[in-house]
């Protein structure tokens, strides 16, 4: 548990940008300004992006490798990551898109 907590603190060092300013904070193509809400199907507008910069050793890859030998089930990203979180104009629920390097 101590190792998981230590690795999660590294993830907390992600760069966060609010609004359209962070749309290029992606490991692939830029994030769109809007996307379809996964809750109601309405239009969701960009709220913020979070981006894991290149680091010495990949944080999420280290977590993934740790997870293989643990009793915890689930899927993990295998590389540096970027997330864009949107808020729906209709229901205000969040939708998040992500990609990885």
The main sheet comes to: 5 strands, antiparallel
In terms of DSSP E residues, the strand content is 25-35%
Order of helices and strands: HEEEHEE
Q: Roughly what percent helix? A: 10-25%
Show unreliable segments.
none
Count of strand segments: 5
Overall shape: it is globular
Mean pLDDT equals 79
Query: How many individual domains?
Result: 1
Structural class: alpha+beta
Number of helices: 2
Termini separation: 27 Å
Which value, in Å, is the CA radius of gyration?
15 Å
For the structure shown, list the relevant keywords.
101 residues, alpha+beta, 5-stranded antiparallel beta sheet, globular
What does this protein structure show overall?
Strands 1, 2, 3, 4 and 5 form a 5-stranded antiparallel β-sheet that branches. The chain is globular. It has one domain (2-100). It is built from 2 helices and 5 strands. The model has no long low-confidence stretch (mean pLDDT 79). With 101 residues, the protein is of the alpha+beta class.
Protein topology:
Layout: H1 2-11, E1 15-18, E2 34-36, E3 43-51, H2 59-68, E4 81-88, E5 94-100
Antiparallel strand pairs: 1-3, 2-3, 3-4, 4-5
Helix pairs in contact: 1-2
């Amino acid at each position: 548990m101590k190792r998981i907590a230590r690795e999660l603190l590294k993830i907390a060092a992600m760069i966060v940008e609010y609004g359209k300013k962070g749309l290029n904070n992606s490991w692939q193509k830029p994030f769109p300004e809007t996307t379809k809400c996964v809750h109601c199907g309405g239009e969701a507008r960009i709220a913020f992006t979070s981006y894991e910069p290149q680091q010495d050793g990949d944080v999420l890859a280290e977590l993934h490798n740790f997870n293989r030998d643990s009793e915890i089930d689930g899927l993990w990203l295998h590389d540096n990551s970027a997330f864009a979180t949107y808020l729906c104009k209709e229901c205000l629920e969040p939708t998040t898109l992500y990609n990885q390097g």
